[in-house]
Structure formats: structure tokens, C-alpha cells
Amino acid sequence: MPGSSDDYVRVMPVDEIAEAEIYEFEVDGEPRILTRVGDEIFACDGICTHEYAELAEGEIEDHVVYCPLHGSGFDLRTGAVTSLPAVTPLPIYDVKIEGGQVFVSRRPRGESGA
User: Fold this and answer.
1) What digits encode the pLDDT tens for the residues 87-103?
2) What's 91's DSSP letter?
């Protein structure tokens, strides 16, 4: 059932997430990152789609995460590429807050379970 607790993993307390800071975490061995922009919290893949680089080492500006290697930008709301050299969108994960904790979906937005 979509939205069940098995579809989400607890990441950290919501009040520990600072504006434009990047927090690394893993889901099933896959690197992800979490960040806050204003009142919104976003989660996405932790590796750039252009070339292997850890986005946790990048920077957040407005709603864009920039890769530390070549400067590719990705919109945190949609995963869309905002600056080259990347051309493949970044997988984005749904975020929910329950009991003061941040939970992130196991599967990317738009990908249904088997």
C-alpha cells in the first residue's frame, strides 16, 4: 500500500535540519541527501547523474543543488537539470514529517513498487 511505513525510512529530527545544509544518509545502501530550503525539506539521490560525484559535497542555492565536480545543477523540487553538463534528471524522493521526525520514501517520486 503506498504511503505505508515500509515505504519510508526515518532519517533525522526535523528540528536538526538547518537552512541550505546538506545531510547525507543511505537507504538500502544507496546514498541520498536531505536539505531544507525555507519551510520545505527535500530529499534526492546523493550522486550526480553526469559523473560520479557526491552531492553532499556540493552547495544549495535557492531550490538548486550544485554538483561539486562540474557544477551541474538540479532543481530539488523536480530533479530537473538547471545547468550543464548533466542532462539526466536527478531522482527526487517524497518527504513526510511525523512526530517531529523526517521520513523519506524508499523509491523515487513517480516510481511505483513491484
Assistant:
1) 999 999 999 999 999 99
2) P
Task: List the domain boundaries for the chain.
Answer: 5-105
> According to CATH, what is the number of the domain 5-105?
2.102.10.10
Q: What is the pLDDT of residues 25-83, one digit of tens each?
A: 999 999 999 999 999 999 999 999 999 999 999 999 999 999 999 999 999 999 999 99
Q: Say if CB 13 and CB 23 are below 8 A apart.
A: no
Grid cell locating 114: 513491484
* Best CA proximity match to 55, nearest among 41, 43, 39: 43
Contact 105, 41 (CB under 8 A): no
